[in-house]
Prior knowledge:
Layout: H1 2-11, E1 28-35, E2 45-54, E3 57-67, H2 77-80, H3 84-90, H4 94-105, E4 109-112, H5 115-130, E5 139-141, H6 142-151, H7 166-172, H8 183-203, H9 209-213
Helix pairs in contact: 4-5, 6-8
Amino acid sequence: MSAAVRDDFLSYFQLTWDRYLGWENARFVVLDCESTGLDSRRDRIVSIGAVAAIHFEVCLEDAFEVFMPIAYNTSSVTLHGITREAAEAKGIEEPVALERFLRYVRDGVIVGHHVGHDIAMLEAAANRHFGIERLPNLSIDTMDLALRLEELGVLNKPDGPRSFSLDSLCQRFEIPPHDRHTAMGDAFLTARIFQILLRKARRAGLLRLGDLTERYVPKE
Length: 220
């Protein structure tokens, strides 16, 4: 079963997006994972929320949300609010949840704020259950992209303190932070921020997927 899940998922990448292609028709999957902590080797995913974005539009009909049971409550409950009891009531076991997620994300370009943590958690889970050590998907970190766009002069600097947190970008772009610190809520907020960043990226001449996936390196 695990080999079938792995082979099915990897089959999407036989002919897929690469960094040299234009991004205007790419299927972006904007996601967020809530977890029991920050250590991908020890901690576990509590919930995954994701929504697709295609050609500047957030596709609410192409969304995904799942909860997974956890063994015990950790300090992260104070952030995401999902207790062991709540996760047990509406959660499904991790391998089933991950299989559904892989069938949903397919070869989509993964987008997230501080997306490295989300990908590390997903890869650890995918490796545990299906032997998938690395997700082949291209990925974009909205914080990296915002930093690069500000450096290129197409993203105005804030009047107050300079910050690139999700809350700060919501404030900068006048996006109400509704449903913050839930996987689905943060995915949707990130998708709205990403829409704005895409328009500014086009204005800056960043027209290929590789222009968006590039990690930000500050100039010395």
